[in-house]
Amino acid sequence: MVVTRLRGGLGNQMFQYACGLAVANHLKQQLYIDRFEVDRDPRHGGYTLAEYQVPSVSGSYESSYSFKIKHKLLRRMKIFSRLESIFYFEPTFSYAPLPYDRFGDNVYLDGYWQSESYFNDIRDLLIAEFSPSYCISGKSSQLLDQIRSTTSVSIHIRRGDYLSNKSANILHGVLSLDYYNAAIDYIKQHVSEPTFYIFSDDPEWVNSQFPLADAVVASNSDKTNQKHSLDMYLMSACQHNIIANSSYSWWGAWLNQNPAKKVLAPKKWFNTSTVSSQSLVPAQWIRL
Asked: How far apart are the first and last CA of the chain?
C-alpha cells in the first residue's frame, strides 16, 4: 500500500494527495491517506478533500499507524536502508525525482510535493477527482454562468494568515499591488476584452483598496455555500488566471482546462532566498 501524510489547508492536501496517487498508480498499489494531523488541526478547516470526488477508501488510520510503529522499531535497530524503503521523506522543497527503484510495495510519503512534475502524468485523473462533490447553486451558479460567458480572468489576493500568522508572514508575505498592476496590464495587452473576477479572503480590503474599479469581487458570493473549494473551482472555470503566492490559487490555475490559458504568477513566491520556487511554478506560466 501507499500512504500519504496530509497537513495544512486545501491546497497543501491536494499536492500531497496528487503525489500519493501518482506513486500508488506507478506501483499498482492502493492509496491510503493519513488524516491524523488535519483531523486534529482546525486552523485550516480539517480534512477538506471530502469536497471532491476523492474515493472514500482513503483514510486508514490503522495502516498509517502500523507504518509509524515499524518506523520507530527500525530507527532503534538502525536499519536505515530498510527504513527508507518504507518511509520516504521529501528531501528538499524543490522537485526531486522519486526513487522508485528503492520503493517496495509499502511506502509512506511525508512531504509537501509542490511540483506538477510529481503527478503531471495523471493530470486527467486528478481533474476528474478534483471535481466538486457538491452542487453549485444559488449566487455561485449565477456567477459561474457569468464567468463562462465572458473572457474571464481570475485574480487571487491572499491576505488572512499571511498577515496574522507570524511564520506565514515571514515565509510568504502579502504580494504588493505592483505585482497585481503588472499582471493586469499584461492581461490587458494580450487578452481582448477581459473581465476580471477577484477572489480573496479579505473582500473588504479589496473593495476599499484594490485599484480596479470595474472588476467583480467574487469571493464569498454565496453565504449559504461556504465550501473551502468553491472559490478555487470558480477560479478554475476562468479562461485566464492571476495567482497569488498561494497553493490555493496555484490549483485554481492548474485545474483550468483552457488550452490557451495565460497564468500570471509572482517571481517572488517566498520572502526568503533559502527556499526556491523554480520547480513549483510550471514552466509555461508567466512570472512577473
From this structure: 41
